[in-house]
Amino acid sequence: MKKNLWLLPALVSLVFLAFSIRVIAAEGLFGFLDDHLRSGWGMQVGIDLVLAASTGMFLASGLARKYGVRPLPWILLTLATGSIGLLAFVARILYAREHSAASPATDSSTPVAS
Length: 114
Known about the structure:
The chain is an all-alpha fold.
């Protein structure tokens, strides 16, 4: 297993968060709604993003439980921030997986506390 693999989704999440904060400051918190409600394509993209995030949360939740990470806070973060939260969720799962496998006293099937 690769060491520090969790850093990649964590870094992408932080960079996207910084970019999103800049966009929110320039265009407002709900500016994205105009784009998603303006046309059929905007609505299609919005629905596609919700379906992708829902699928990601569903799949990540099973792994989260396996490694002792409580999914609910991460699901709420994903609902509030979209990909920023989902990438942070994936980073947390990868971190827990790495540390559960690295600990000699911990059996790989034993969950790690979040």
